């Protein structure tokens, strides 16, 4: 099956239904050469959206992704690049876990320098900042877009009421509105995308660039017996992931996904990714990989999407 391209919410921008992101893997688990192989494989499969964030690997992820894109010689107009701001790279009261105007104006310049780009296509507020007025955030993001340093802006893991407030403020002052959200979405984490954000789709046609379709690898089934020493769940700082994926309830759900995959003759990862893509509210599913073989496997989900009939979807959702 060829790559499908979907509009990002109510914009005219089209993203590949499967995209590629660098959370955890870039620099932490793979270097430039493997990153190049993975990005090239994704590109050859039709991926046109590459997701990043200031905080990933302390800024090194942006450096690697920008270098790879240049080395591969991709025309800038042919791909969509994102970054996300909030966590900061310095232990400073105005540069850490904030969305104040000062931070945002500094941070976008830092990200563009690391990426080696004049602009990013998508710019996300990586988390909600309750200490900064939403009005201040909307004005800053509007001005960043007006300066040509980003084309569209959105949020990541914001509560629905804060997103609604941002829409209202943008409407009131005729500023650039947020057009997308980047929430976690998979067979183990569904409520925010399917319930909390439901009014935002109807009222604002909000797009979503969802992350962790495999629940950080849990839905591949690789953690059912134990946590492999080389896996993400074994990395320092990811103890929470190990606790999350080893609960009895999640084990039972994952085993059902594995069974369905066997029935379809594909991998659990492909089923999990395809399930996310079946949701029409999902603009793109961000996939990740620590080796090129995983990219090829993930892209194989394109062939699984049409095979997820209503009956199969019911089986999977019953498992969740």
Give a structural overview:
- The mean pLDDT is 93.
- α1 packs parallel to α11, α2 packs parallel to α3 (101-115) and α9 (248-264) packs across α10.
- β5, α3 and β6 form a beta-alpha-beta unit.
- This protein has a single domain, classed as TIM Barrel (Alpha-Beta Barrel), CATH 3.20.20.
- It starts with a strand and ends with a helix.
- Helices cover 42% and strands 13% of the residues.
- The protein is built from 13 helices and 10 strands.
- It is globular.
- The chain is an alpha/beta fold and 320 residues long.
Question: Could you give a quick summary of the protein structure above?
Answer:
With 320 residues, this protein is of the alpha/beta class. It is 42% helix and 13% strand. Helix 3 (101-115) packs parallel to helix 4 (134-146) and helix 9 packs antiparallel against helix 13.
Set out the fold topology.
Elements: E1 5-7, E2 14-16, E3 18-21, H1 32-44, E4 49-51, H2 60-71, E5 80-85, H3 101-115, E6 120-125, H4 134-146, E7 150-155, H5 160-173, E8 180-181, H6 191-196, H7 198-204, E9 207-210, H8 239-245, H9 248-264, H10 268-277, E10 284-287, H11 292-299, H12 301-304, H13 310-319
Parallel strand pairs: 3-4, 3-10, 4-5, 5-6, 6-7, 7-8, 8-9, 9-10
Antiparallel strand pairs: 1-2
């Amino acid at each position: 099956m060829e790559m499908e391209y979907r509009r990002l919410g109510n914009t005219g921008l089209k993203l590949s239904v499967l995209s590629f992101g660098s959370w955890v893997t870039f620099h932490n688990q793979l270097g430039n050469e493997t990153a190049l192989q993975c990005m090239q494989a994704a590109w050859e499969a039709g991926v046109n959206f590459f997701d990043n964030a200031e905080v990933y690997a302390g800024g090194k992820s942006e450096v690697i992704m920008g270098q790879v894109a240049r080395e591969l010689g991709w025309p800038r107009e042919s791909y969509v690049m994102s970054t996300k701001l909030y966590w900061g790279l310095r232990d400073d009261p105005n540069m850490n876990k904030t969305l104040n105007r000062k931070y945002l104006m500094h941070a976008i310049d830092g990200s563009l320098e690391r990426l080696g780009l004049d602009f990013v296509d998508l710019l996300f507020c990586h988390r909600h900042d309750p200490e900064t007025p939403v009005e201040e955030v909307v004005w800053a993001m509007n001005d960043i877009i007006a300066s040509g340093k980003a084309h569209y802006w959105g949020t990541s893991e914001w509560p629905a009421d804060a997103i609604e407030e941002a829409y209202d403020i943008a409407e009131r002052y005729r500023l650039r509105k947020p057009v997308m959200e980047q929430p976690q979405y998979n067979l183990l984490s569904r409520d925010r995308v399917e319930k909390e954000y439901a009014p935002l789709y109807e009222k604002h046609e909000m797009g979503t660039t969802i992350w962790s379709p495999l629940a950080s690898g849990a839905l591949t089934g690789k953690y059912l017996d134990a946590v492999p020493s080389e896996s993400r769940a074994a990395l320092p700082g990811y103890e929470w992931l190990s606790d999350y994926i080893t609960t009895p309830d999640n084990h039972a759900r994952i085993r059902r996904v594995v069974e369905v995959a066997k029935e379809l003759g594909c991998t659990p990862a492909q089923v999990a990714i395809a399930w996310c893509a079946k949701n029409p509210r999902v603009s793109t599913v961000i996939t990740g990989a620590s080796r090129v073989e995983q990219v090829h496997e993930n892209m194989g989900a394109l062939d699984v999407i049409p095979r997820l009939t209503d009956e199969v979807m019911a089986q999977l959702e019953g498992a969740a």
